Structures are given as structure tokens and as C-alpha cells.
């Protein structure tokens, strides 16, 4: 019976440790599906400006009730500082990142958009160092690994940007229609511009994670923060869409790929993703949250080849390999740093406990000495001869 309880306890502890990893890995599958669905909707004429508005409107409607009731007792009071941070968060991710991404994915491909995400951890790491969420000590091996990995990752991103190369068939499915060939030719003319748009969107996304981490310190209610970001993202995105998209017909959607893209992206990649990233970001930091993006590249490449008949170009493959190598140099350094920090915290805790224990022992000894002295004096007083007048 005792062994079964110990096994259940150890299993529970192991599962709790794995939760952040499982959460981030599952999100990569969600993002991969989003890249495919959104690109299909864009090819059917869905405006990415309007897509952003509908996406976050749906996320707000779904998650706001949960946020209101679940975090009703723990939600802190809104301050001007927190509200301003949420306004900026809503601009960085729902408006800036996703609209630039929408342009970039149309100018390149779903697979390339996923590949470009591999540079996200490096950019996040650089920003985390600037805003003192990450420490760099070049005398430590793990810090050197993080710096070198970041440089390698940036080099891989530059390779993807400047060198396209010939197409590479990663699967046996190579049938391409004339419409797809025409779309590919059109996208090829704007490849560099699309790549720049994607990289700028990633910078906005990295800044979002940095500010999200700081906001959670003042407003530790991740579900409410998610709902507020989606709500303000809907408002800000609506203003931008009204300026950029003048066709009234573009706002009309039916039960088609456009509604599917907005609903799927809103629920999975805005609502769920913002919430899960908030929880993990608060515990593990922004670099950990972004460390799993290469998995998205693999999933999207397979889905893109099967569903969209996309071809991966040699420059993308070379750049992706360089980025993955650099990325996991950063991840290795980060893991070693966490291990060293945990060991240091444990040693400091032990060092604080020992003096307290010694102090307690000394207090007991001192009390015994005082008690013995009092008893001795009392005994001497009783045995001394009585002095008369």
C-alpha cells in the first residue's frame, strides 16, 4: 500500500514538472494547424486585417465569461500602469504581429512562415537580456552557449532571408495545379519583402512575451489578462482594419474557410495560447515559452506539402538547420543556468537553516547554564549558617 502511494506521489510530481513542456508542445500543433487554415482562407480572399478583428472578437466572447467567474476572487484591481501595459500588449501581438504575419505568409508560404519562427527564441533572448529578465556572465559556460547560440540563430535567419535556392520535394506528393504555380510565382516576386514582414512580426511577438512577463508581476490573473488583451486587440485591430480595408463586402463571411480560420485561430491560438503562455511565462520565463517553435516548422512542412502542395526551398532548409543548432545551444545554456540557480538556492537555504539550528542549540545550553547557576546559589543559601543579630 505504501509503495503504491509513493508511486502515485512520484508520478504526480513528475507530471507537474512535465506540464510546462506538454503545454508548449501542444501549442505548436495548434499553431501549425493555424498556418494551414489561415493561408487557405487568405487564398479565398479573406482580408488579414479583418481576420485579426474576427479572430480576437471570437476569443473574447469565448474566454471573457470564464475569466470573470474563475478569477473573480483573485483578480487584482486595475491600475493605470497595468491598463497601459495591456493596451501595448494588444497592439504588439493582435495588431502588429498578426497583420505583418498575414502579409508575410501571403508573400512566402505557410511552411516558410513556420520556419521563420525558429528565430523567435533568439530575439526573445536578446530582449530578455536587455530588460534584465536573463543574465549573461561570459565567465560561465552556459552563458557563452546562450550568446553563441543566439548569434548562430540570427545567422540562420539571414540565410533564409537572402538565399531562397531551388525547391526541394520533401514528400512524394508533388502534384501542383496551374493556380498554385501562378501563386508561387507571384509570391516569389515578393519573397524578400515577405521575409522582412515575418521577421518584424516575430520581433513584435518577442516584445509581447517580454511585456507579458512584466505585466503578470503586477496583474497575476492570466485568464483575465488573456480576455482583456483579446478585447482590446479587437478594438485596436478594428480601427486599423477600418482604415486599411474599405470594401464593405470584405467584412461579410459565411460558413466557409474564413469563419473556420477566425474561429480556430481565435479559440486555439489566441485564447488558449495567450492563457497557457501566460501561466508558463510567469513560472519559466519568456525564453522557455519560445523554445519549442522548431516543432511548428516540422509539423507545418508536412501539412503544407500534403494539403497545400507546397515545396520547401533549399535556402529555407539550410537556414532552418542553422537556426535549430543555434536554438538548442541557447536551450542547453538555459537549462544549465537553471540547474545552477536551483543548486545555489538550495545551498543558500541550507546555509540559513544551519545558523538557526546552532543558535537554538546555543540558546538551550545557555538556559541550562542559567538554571544550574540559580539552583546552585539556592542550595548554597540553604546550607549557609544562620547569622543572628
Give the structure's gist in a few sentences.
This protein is mainly α.
Structure, explained:
The protein has 13 helices and two strands, in the order ααααααβααααααβα. With 389 residues, the chain is an all-alpha fold. The relative contact order is 0.18. The model is unreliable at 172-180 (pLDDT under 50).
Number of domains: 1
Overall radius of gyration? 29 Å
Structural class: mainly alpha
Number of helices: 13
For the largest sheet, list the strands in their spatial order. 1-2
Strand content: under 5%
Helix content: over 70%
Distance between the termini: 80 Å
Q: Could you name the ranges where pLDDT drops below 50 across 5 or more consecutive residues?
A: 172-180
Q: Main beta sheet: strand number and arrangement?
A: 2 strands, antiparallel
The beta-strand count equals 2
Shape: globular
How do the SSEs run, as a string of H and E? Answer: HHHHHHEHHHHHHEH
Average pLDDT number: 80
Tags for this model:
389 residues; mainly alpha; 13 helices; 2 strands; transmembrane; EmrE-like; transmembrane helix; EamA_dom
Amino acid at each position: 500500500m505504501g509503495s503504491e502511494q509513493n508511486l502515485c506521489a512520484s508520478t504526480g510530481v513528475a507530471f507537474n514538472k512535465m506540464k510546462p513542456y506538454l503545454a508548449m508542445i501542444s501549442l505548436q500543433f495548434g499553431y501549425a494547424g493555424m498556418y494551414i487554415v489561415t493561408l487557405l482562407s487568405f487564398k479565398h480572399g479573406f482580408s488579414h486585417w479583418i481576420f485579426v478583428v474576427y479572430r480576437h472578437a471570437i476569443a473574447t466572447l469565448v474566454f471573457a465569461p470564464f475569466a470573470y467567474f474563475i478569477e473573480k476572487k483573485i483578480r487584482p484591481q486595475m491600475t493605470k500602469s497595468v491598463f497601459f501595459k495591456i493596451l501595448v500588449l494588444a497592439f504588439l501581438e493582435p495588431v502588429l504581429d498578426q497583420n505583418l504575419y498575414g502579409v508575410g505568409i501571403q508573400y512566402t508560404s505557410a511552411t516558410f512562415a513556420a520556419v521563420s519562427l525558429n528565430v523567435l527564441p533568439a530575439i526573445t533572448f536578446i530582449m530578455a537580456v536587455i530588460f534584465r529578465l536573463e543574465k549573461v556572465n561570459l565567465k560561465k559556460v552556459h552563458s557563452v552557449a546562450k550568446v553563441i547560440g543566439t548569434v548562430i540563430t540570427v545567422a540562420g535567419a539571414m540565410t533564409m532571408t537572402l538565399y531562397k535556392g531551388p525547391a526541394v520535394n520533401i514528400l512524394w506528393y508533388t502534384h501542383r495545379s496551374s493556380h498554385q504555380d501562378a501563386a508561387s510565382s507571384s509570391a516569389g516576386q515578393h519573397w524578400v519583402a515577405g521575409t522582412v514582414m515575418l521577421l518584424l512580426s516575430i520581433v513584435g511577438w518577442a516584445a509581447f512575451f517580454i511585456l507579458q512577463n512584466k505585466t503578470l508581476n503586477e496583474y497575476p490573473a492570466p485568464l483575465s489578462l488573456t480576455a482583456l488583451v483579446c478585447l482590446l486587440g479587437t478594438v485596436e485591430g478594428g480601427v486599423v482594419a477600418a482604415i486599411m480595408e474599405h470594401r464593405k463586402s470584405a467584412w461579410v463571411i459565411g460558413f466557409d474557410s474564413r469563419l473556420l480560420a477566425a474561429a480556430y485561430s481565435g479559440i486555439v491560438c489566441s485564447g488558449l495560447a495567450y492563457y497557457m503562455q501566460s501561466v508558463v511565462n510567469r513560472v519559466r520565463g519568456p525564453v522557455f515559452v519560445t523554445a519549442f517553435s522548431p516543432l511548428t516548422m516540422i509539423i507545418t512542412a508536412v501539412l503544407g506539402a500534403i494539403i497545400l502542395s507546397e515545396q520547401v526551398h533549399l535556402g529555407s532548409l539550410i537556414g532552418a538547420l542553422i537556426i535549430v543548432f543555434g536554438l538548442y545551444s541557447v536551450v542547453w545554456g538555459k537549462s544549465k543556468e537553471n540547474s545552477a540557480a536551483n543548486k545555489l538556492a538550495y545551498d543558500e537555504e541550507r546555509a540559513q537553516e544551519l545558523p538557526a539550528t546552532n543558535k537554538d542549540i546555543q540558546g538551550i545550553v545557555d538556559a541550562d547554564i542559567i538554571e544550574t547557576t540559580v539552583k546552585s546559589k539556592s542550595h548554597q543559601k540553604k546550607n549557609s549558617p544562620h547569622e543572628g543579630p
